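Appendix B. Chain record.
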Amino acid sequence: MNHTGTPHILERELTDIPEDVRSAPAPVVPEIGEPFRMRLADPDGTDPETLATWMALPHLVETWEQPWPAERRRRHLAAQLAGTYSRPYLLSYDFTAIDRADLGRREVAYVELYRAAKDECGKLYEADPLDLGFHIATADLNLIGHGIMSAWMRELAAALFTADPGCKRLICDPDHRNTPMRKALRKNGWIDLGEVDVRPDRRIALHVLPRTQSDLPTLRR
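Structure tokens predicted for this chain:
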């Protein structure tokens, strides 16, 4: 069981953490402007089935490695919402912004926001309790290669810094082979701290966006 009393099924969440990290609140809810919208995922609705379908797509199997059945996703979402480590969202996009009225508004991606000091990445650098990280799984390939998700990442960063004034830095840890994501992060001013093996089967490229230059961390070696 984790400290919330929820079965501990969040494999990346740290439990041996100091009190200032443990007491940090759940990630803030950012205000994202049109043509994007974010909403909390609902474990009791149809979102687990949606996410199970998305995560079975070949490009997400390769980058996320979570081709879980809907019931496992349901338990995972419930555990996230019960604790303060992470929050799950579904991202929608209004395709009329790129003259695709035929597509309308549709949900296109899964997003996780998390407190970096409560995450396995918090062991890689001197994480502040209020640091935030994010993951995104873009399911709709209509968005790939048009700069749309890059624009969303830029807006997300600004929204997070505004919503959480105590947050010193944002982190993102794509798989080291995820070249498009790494390129999009660098395009938006994120700094690549280097590649790290966080588990025998997982090598990531840790990126950081500091609020100020003095908030730029270094990797622990």
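Further analysis of this model is presented in Appendix C.
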